[in-house]
Amino acid sequence: MSREVLSPPVQAMNQNRRYRVNIVHEAFGGDKWNGQNKRFHGENKAYEEPDLYGEDDDEEDPAANNIAESSSGEFKLALHVPKSFYGGLIGLKGSTKRRIEEETRTELYVPRQNERSNDVIIKGKQRSQVCGALRQIRHLITSLRKKMKPTHFLAVALNSGEVQERYAELKKSILEAQLPGIDKELFMPESSIHLTLGVYVLLDDNERQRALKELEACRSLLTELKTPFELKVKGLEIMNDDPSSTRILYGRIESPDLQKFADQCLAHFQSTGLCATDNNERESIKLHMTLMNNRYRKEAMKSGNSFDAREILKRFGDFDFGAAQCKAVHLCVLKSRSEDEFYKITGSLEF
Q1: What is the DSSP string of 180-207?
Q2: How deeply is 69 buried, as exposed, middle or buried, from its count of CB atoms within 10 A (0-12, 13-18, 19+)?
Q3: Is 251 helix (H, G, I), strand (E, B) or coil?
Q4: Is the pLDDT of residue 51 over 70?
Q5: CA–CA separation, 331 vs 86, rounded Å?
Q6: CA distance to 100, 253, 303, per residue, from 247 (Å)
Q7: Could you tell me the CA-to-CA distances from 189 to 50, 167, 232, 320 in Å, in that order?
Q8: How many CB atoms lie within 10 A of CB 121?
């Protein structure tokens, strides 16, 4: 297989997206940068993404500490890069790889897909040249990751106790009302109800383990907060302005300490380069428990891309799901749930 045609999975962009605070993990929205942190340089004023590892200080990238000097005076760095990025790093007929090599005066070796190694080798006569190539590769990976579909998310499970029982009651009442266009497929399974605290693109085991280490680092954020977190779930809301044509209905969450932790955890992961693009573009997490989503329908396209929630809001808008405690947050695999089980958990932060 040609190394030039490999490309990462791309998330389709919705040109009509409304940028409101009430957006779920599949379309967080917002523009954190507002154009203020964009940088332009060179004769062609090429746009450069904000540097997650520091604007111009190469030493702030931890990988720079692994640059080794050989006995011949050559500098070398073995940089772990998931194979999903190889196609973008090589470029059409090797154009991207050649450009980086020419601009930084380095030599790059990108492993073939059938090789076990995931290390891209950067060689240069000067340490600064290797750092320059490292920076360009980081920028490229950041740009490519933004186009990829999320693979994992950080969740608070609510699939037990009072909240789960009350959700089952609400679901039963809504279905018994036999409202037009409302069917069982719209509902989140009782085994899977949760809050989403973050969404990530993790492409290999190295990145998954790194994400778990970053999650453990968030333990320090708990020192001034009361744990376990107390949650109240009461009231229904939708994710857009028109209840007659909505895609998502959710339960409102009240938990000041969990909100603080969620926002601080978001800020921490934004510095790691592992976030899906939606997480990089927002400053706060909208705590919500998704109850109904048109995407859950197996034949959503045939049923339309929305449902009418007016009667549900009229009858059940103040529904009280009760209270719950959050004793852990879980790193879960997206699209891994079933009717009877929670999402597959990669790892957890328990407290």
Answers
A1: TT--GGGBPPTTT-EEEEEEE---SHHH
A2: exposed
A3: strand
A4: no
A5: 26
A6: 44, 19, 12
A7: 39, 10, 20, 18
A8: 15
Closest C-alpha among 252, 233, 234, 244 to residue 182:
244
* Cβ atoms of residues 86 and 6 within 8 Å: yes
Residue 163 to residues 8, 40, 323, 343, Cα–Cα distance (Å): 38, 51, 7, 18
List of residues 6+ apart from 91 with CB closer than 8 A? 4, 97, 98, 99
Looking at residue 8, its pLDDT comes to 41
Proportion of the chain above pLDDT 70, given as a percent: 81
Query: Tell me: the pLDDT tens digits for 289-320?
Result: 999 999 888 764 555 689 999 999 999 999 99
In the block, residue with structure tokens 């990238």: 61
φ, ψ for residue 23, nearest 5 deg: -125, 135
Contact (CB, 8 A) for 75 and 132: no
Asked whether residue 190 carries a pLDDT value surpassing 60, the answer given is yes
Contact 311, 179 (CB under 8 A): yes
3-state secondary structure of 34: coil
Q: What is the mean pLDDT of residues 244-258?
A: 97
Half-sphere CA count of 180, side-chain side, radius 13 A: 5
Strands 328-333 and 152-157: antiparallel
> Between residues 281 and 65, which one has the greater pLDDT?
65
Q: What is the crossing angle of helices 127-146 and 95-104, to 10°?
A: 150
